[in-house]
Specification:
CATH topology of the largest domain: hpI Integrase, Chain A
Structural class: mainly alpha
Strand content: under 5%
Strand order of the largest sheet: 1-2-3
Largest sheet: 3 strands, antiparallel
Shape: elongated
Mean pLDDT: 83
Number of strands: 3
Radius of gyration: 23 Å
Oligomer: single chain
Length: 327
Amino acid sequence: MIKSNRPPMFRSRLGTLMEEFLAEKRTLGYKYRTGEVLLRNLDRFLAEHGLSSAVLPRPLAEGWAKRGANEWATSHAHRITLIRQFAAFLHRRGIEAHLPAPAMTRNDDAGFAPFIFTRAQMRALFDAVDRIPPCPQAPGREHLLPFLFRLLYCCGFRAGEALRLELRDVDTERGILLVRQGKFGYDRLVPLSESMRRRLTAYRMVRPAVPPCAYLFPSRHGNAYCHRMLYQIFRRLLFACGIGHGGRRKGPRLHDLRHTFAVHRLELWYRQGGNLMDQLPVLSVYLGHKSLAGTQRYLRITPALFPDITDRMNAFCGPLIPRRANP
């Protein structure tokens, strides 16, 4: 038998079980990249604190799950979720494991609501990105950025999905984009409107001839365009449009373009007299959500539509539209 020289992924007494837990998550379709990082962190903690047997005792579980002094609430919540899932996994195998209470995390972001751009703000944003000048250090950005920002809003793409698109994923003639291995590990086809298909054709015409595996939105080195740089440009566009930014986790965020797409699409269907109960699952599939529950988070309705649409949607799928308490 050939032995692998690869060092073990985990080193604590629970290391083998951690590998099985990670494999189970990925078999279910989760990429679990952040989960793997947190699991490695937990593994180091257990090894450093002298875990002597393959169990997860309460002092060590709660010691690792305790929130750090400068830790973001979201990061802490992710750690709580990870250790609770792992403890439940151990329980299913008959192994003693303490399950930290969900109350250990304090959700500082419970009142967070996405920033929904008005249509006038979106027009201003597009006008600003269309005026971005050429740059010798970023060749082609004057073509790349206008189409990329329109793709985020007009098709509700996640930024990471758009940046990972390759030329082989693009059907210019039919106006269809293929998202490979999206958030939940699924592929999906995203059809474009006719106006977006024409923009795609125009964008492809100014791109140099490159192999099919090249990125649709490349950096100057040929890699995928940098997410951090895209966010920096987004911030500059907001400033140019006079749209204030509240700081970290206050928004507007790049991801709010996706929220805005969902809200504007729902409002348009509503004004056209469409059957929202039939169309909500269509929106869910188009956005690449695993279930309707994921789509519900994206829907924030304007006050003018709120009174009537709430009753209609609640009758179909529960409290879809969050009510805002009076200040």
